[in-house]
Structure formats: structure tokens, C-alpha cells
Amino acid sequence: MRVFAQPLRARVFHLRTQNGDHEVDLIVERADHRVLAIEVKLATAAKPADAKHLNWLAAQLGDTLIDRVIINTGPFAYRMKDGTAVVPLGLLGP
Q1: CA angle at residue 68 from 63 to 72, to 5 degrees?
Q2: Is 50:92 a contact under the CB 8 Å cutoff?
Q3: Residues 39, 67: contact at Cβ < 8 Å?
Q4: DSSP letter string over 45-87?
Q5: Which residues, 6+ apart, have CB-to-CB distance to 51 below 8 Å?
Q6: CA pair distance 70, 25, nearest whole angstrom
């Protein structure tokens, strides 16, 4: 993700709340402080529970959040009912 973020002058980091209740695998923050939240799952299909922390972050950030994404090992990209994007890792390469 850092390689993709560098040309955009974006930062990539991990988020975990102090008490450990919420964790997001990757946060990509642009120079304008808008963010993309990403969960990485080693499964071929995403479940609604996989987006739990992404949805929590969306409620915290409002319009600052650009999108919520789950990267998985599945064959297809799609949107879950809650609007979270599901993207196979294989689609991210050059």
C-alpha cells in the first residue's frame, strides 16, 4: 500500500484504539487529511462482520472518510450491502 500511496504523497498506517476495541489494518491518509480505511482478510468472500471496524471508523470520521475497503483473496470485486468495497488482492497489481 505504501508504494501505491507514495506518488499521492499519502501516509499509510495502522489504527488500534487505546483500549483495543477497534482496529483497522490500513489507513491511507492523503495530504488533505481525508482517509481510506482498509481491512485485509485471507478469505475468498467477505462477511458483514469483516466490516465492523470500518463501519465504526466511518461513523467517527464522517465525510473525512473517502471509502471503506476489504481486500481479500476472492475472484470478484463488489460492494457489500453496507457500501463497503470488496476488492481481490490480485486486482491491485500492475
Answers
A1: 175
A2: no
A3: no
A4: S--GGGGHHHHHHHHHHGGGEEEEEEEES-S--EE-TTS-EEE
A5: 39, 68, 70, 80, 82, 84
A6: 10
Q: What is the pLDDT of residues 44-87, one digit of tens each?
A: 999 999 999 999 999 999 999 999 999 999 999 999 999 999 99
Burial class of 1 by CB neighbour count within 10 A (0 to 12, 13 to 18, 19+)? middle
Q: What pLDDT is recorded for position 51?
A: 97
User: Does 3.40.1350 match the CATH number of domain 2-91?
Assistant: yes
In the chain, what are the domain boundaries? 2-91
